[in-house]
Design goal:
The complex is a heterodimer of chains A (312) and B (437). Chain A is an alpha/beta fold. Chain A folds into two domains: 210 residues, P-loop containing nucleotide triphosphate hydrolases (Rossmann fold), CATH 3.40.50; 63 residues, 2-Layer Sandwich (Alpha-Beta Plaits). Chain A contains eight helices and 14 strands. In chain A, the strands form three sheets. Chain A has a six-stranded mixed β-sheet with strand order 6-7-8-3-9-10, with helices on both faces. In chain A, strand 1 and strand 2 form a beta hairpin. Chain A is elongated and about 75 Å long. In chain B, strands 2-1-3-4 form a four-stranded mixed β-sheet. A two-stranded antiparallel sheet of chain B has the order 5-6. Helices cover 66% and strands 6% of the residues of chain B. The longest helix of chain B is centred in the middle third of the chain and has 56 residues. In chain B, helix 6 runs antiparallel to helix 8, helix 6 packs antiparallel against helix 13 and helix 10 packs parallel to helix 14. With 437 residues, chain B is of the alpha/beta class. In chain B, 30% of the residues are buried. Chain B has two domains: 302 residues, no CATH class; 90 residues, Periplasmic binding protein-like II (D-Maltodextrin-Binding Protein, domain 2). The radius of gyration of chain B is 30 Å and the shape is elongated. The interface between A and B is medium-sized, with 28 and 22 residues.
């Protein structure tokens, strides 16, 4: 769907993007993650042809990105807004027509979305008369009204209240089911973690990691388990099965985190504990994207040099 | 192109539909006609209420020779000086005019009052005194004043323009008036509509819709769409004003001409009784104005007005757009406005102090050729006659000028509109200009 190859973008006194390459496959939900100022918005602006890269190329469905692709992309910018004094219906019609829809088609599409989100009665209202939450719905309609094949959402849930965020999330997933490719860009990694199937981490204008979310997380598994129990646990240090990472003890039980030694299974771990304490919960400690990011940035990860875990 | 048309349509309709547009459209011609009517009415009616002047004539020359007019009434001051002064010092006490014995040797005439005397009152008294004194001195010199009355030349120069088609009546005064008005209108319009472009850009920037829009269209398309849309609003406004004013003034002229005969009699009466300055007998001021208007080539001036308004607007509004893109709010525009307003302001001042008096001088020539100053300067030069080659050169350069400013402005604009919350400087603007894309 979208192939980003060796993009470099330089501003007067800093490099916004340094040789960034990404492959985004059709129908995927792609998370473009990284802290503020990492270069996400610069990359998105290049995809939207708002700015051009200094070098590198982008291919949209195997065609070199050009002006004809603009109408096939829907973009919800981080800095968003609408004309304050323009009627909402007219405004969305205008934006839809700017995306290449005929007036007739635009009217049909805008009506459809207004009904879908239950905002038909706002057609004649002005933006300044709407609440923030209402404006967010309208803004979302403006992004998707022209049935884009690629939807780019920059910090989509910042500024959305929880009710609207959930509503919009459902709509995005529905559009994805219908075939649209979605790019989420955010610095709040936990907010999109469950949604994305692919992610890329960007830090200080470089891509530091990308691949399918599951594969990335699997590669960061370290055979670490956390066990909650009640009873008294004595002397667990002397065992060939695992080493203790941490242990908390309270009045009638505690929680212990252990790293299994090579070749040991969780079942063996359980057999070790069953005669000693009452087990309440055992789960594997898998790092969150945020943890992975921090480890990656701080270079704590032993496999730090093997960046690419290519798409399976 | 379709997208630019869409932008033009939105910019145009969103402004034309505003209430303020309608108000301006009807208010301005009404004001112009109102002022016009007021001036005519005042020139017919003369001053307001009668002022009473008590005359203490120590010379004895003027006794009984003052004539009351509509605005001034003369009385002989019979009381002693001190009492007369007290009288004049009272509220609404009127004026006390003291004429010294040595008036003919250049003695000072004094006018006492509680309020300061108005210019009109003073000149009315001066006129009468001059007249009386002259008559007396002529008489003393042995010239019969009766004979003098018959010798009363009343000249007025009728100017004729020599053109290829022969001679035609021209009224320099009226032509000046119309093209000066056009120059002022261009000056104001460049500011008013230029500022609208700037405000439009700032609005898009502060409301943050800009990024949504330029993910659909190129910044250049958006800028041009906005400039053309607002330019058309300006044209629409002018067209409506012209249509409304012509209709209104035709109506006014018809009612005024009907009223004219009455008024001619009035002026002649005035002449007999008070010898106030009046226009040549037999023609009312209203008729003079309308007659003069007939001799102006409106089509020519109007065409030139539209050409220079559009050219100047395109030139300056691109710069206004660049300024708008560089700031986050209107209050920050100050630092960038000076270089834009300076050439306009300079031409405006020069136009009415220098160009009018020296329309064919080298400076006037250059001011009307340089694109930044030509829209105002050329309008002022027009009634004096401008050779075709100069007009062509001036318009050609104006077109080149707006192509150039649009190019410069669009390079600043495309970067500026995406810079939020950054205080920009001239250095910054140059940097933006240099960005490749």
């Amino acid at each position: 769907m979208l192939s980003i190859r060796h993009i470099v973008k330089q501003y007067a006194n800093h490099t916004a993007l340094d040789d960034v390459s990404l492959e985004i496959s059709k129908g995927s939900i792609f998370g473009l993650l990284g802290p503020n100022g990492a270069g996400k918005t610069s990359l998105i602006r290049i995809i939207n042809q708002i700015t051009a890269p200094d070098s590198g190329e982008i291919y949209f469905n195997n065609e070199k990105l050009n002006a004809s692709h603009i109408n096939r992309i829907g973009y919800l910018p981080e800095e968003r807004g609408l004309y304050k004094k323009m009627e909402i219906g007219e405004q969305i019609l205008y934006l839809a027509q700017l995306k290449g829809l005929s007036r007739h088609e635009a009217v049909k599409r805008v009506r459809y979305w207004f009904e879908r989100l239950g905002v038909e009665s706002w057609w004649k209202k002005k933006v300044e008369d709407l609440s923030k939450g209402m404006q967010q719905k309208i803004q979302f309609i403006a992004t998707v009204v022209h049935q884009p094949e690629l939807i780019i959402l920059d910090e989509p849930f910042s500024g959305f209240d929880p009710v609207n965020a959930a509503l919009i999330k459902d709509e995005i997933l529905e559009l994805n089911r219908q075939g649209a490719t979605i790019i989420f860009s955010t610095h709040r990694m936990e907010s999109v973690e469950q949604l994305c199937d692919h992610i890329a981490l960007i830090n200080q204008s470089r891509k530091i990691l990308d691949g399918p979310l599951k594969a990335i997380r699997d590669s960061y598994r370290s055979q670490t388990f956390s066990l909650e129990y009640s009873g008294v646990l004595n002397d667990v240090t002397d065992t060939p099965l695992f080493e203790v990472k941490s242990q908390q003890v309270d009045d009638n039980g505690g929680k212990i985190t252990v790293k299994l030694n090579e070749g040991v299974t969780p079942n063996q771990l359980l057999s070790y504990f069953i005669p000693r304490v009452t087990i309440h919960e055992l789960h594997e400690v898998i790092p969150t994207i945020n943890d992975i990011f921090i480890r990656k940035v701080k270079n704590l990860d032993p496999q730090a040099e093997t960046n690419n875990i290519g798409p399976n | 192109m379709r997208k630019v048309l869409l932008i033009i349509k939105r910019e145009y309709l969103s402004r034309v539909r505003k209430k303020s547009f309608l108000v301006m459209t009807f208010l301005v011609p009404a004001l112009i006609i109102g002022m016009y009517a007021l001036i005519i009415a005042l020139s017919i009616r003369g001053g307001d209420k009668q002022t009473s002047i008590r005359v203490l004539d120590e010379s004895g020359i003027f006794a009984g020779k003052f004539k009351n007019t509509k605005s001034v009434e003369f009385q002989t001051a019979a009381l002693p000086l001190a009492q007369e002064k007290q009288l004049a010092a009272k509220e609404n006490g009127g004026f006390l005019l003291i004429i010294p014995k040595n008036i003919e040797q250049g003695g000072n005439i004094e006018l006492y009052s509680r309020k300061k005397a108005g210019m009109l009152t003073i000149s009315a008294i001066e006129d009468q005194m001059n007249d009386i004194l002259r008559t007396k001195q002529l008489k003393d010199a042995g010239i019969d004043p009766e004979m003098l009355n018959q010798i009363n030349p009343n000249l007025s120069i009728e100017s004729k323009e020599l053109t290829a088609e022969g001679e035609k009546d021209s009224s320099a005064g009226a032509a000046y008036g119309v093209s000066f008005a056009a120059a002022i209108l261009i000056y104001l319009a460049l500011f008013i509509y230029g500022a609208q472009v700037m405000r439009g850009v700032i609005e898009e920037k502060t409301s943050r819709i800009i990024e949504v829009v330029i993910s659909s269209v190129k910044p250049f398309q958006l800028m041009m769409g906005k400039i053309i849309g607002i330019g058309l609003v300006g044209l629409t406004q002018f067209m409506l004003w012209i249509v409304l004013s012509t209709t209104l003034s035709t109506i006014t002229s018809q009612t005024m001409t009907v009223a004219a005969p009455e008024q001619v009699q009035l002026t002649q009466q005035d002449k007999k009784s008070a010898r106030v300055a009046i226009p040549p007998a037999g023609e009312s001021p209203v008729a003079t104005i309308f007659k003069a208007m007939d001799t102006i080539d409106f089509k020519y001036i109007l065409t030139m007005f539209l050409v220079y308004f559009l050219g100047g607007f395109m030139l300056y509004s691109a710069l206004f757009a660049a300024v708008g893109s560089a700031v986050d709010s209107e209050t920050e525009t100050q630092q960038f406005m000076l270089p834009i307003t300076l050439p306009l302001l300079f031409t405006y001042i020069m136009a009415f102090s220098f160009i009018v008096n020296n329309p064919d001088s080298t400076l006037s020539f250059w001011l009307s050729i340089i694109p930044f100053t030509s829209p105002v300067a050329m309008m002022v030069r027009l009634p004096f006659g401008v050779p075709a080659w100069q007009l062509t050169l001036s318009i050609g350069l104006l077109v080149a000028g707006f192509v150039f400013t649009t190019w410069v402005a669009s390079r600043i604009y495309r970067v500026g509109i995406l810079m939020y919350g950054k205080r920009s400087s001239y250095k910054e603007l140059v940097k933006w200009f240099m960005y490749r894309e």
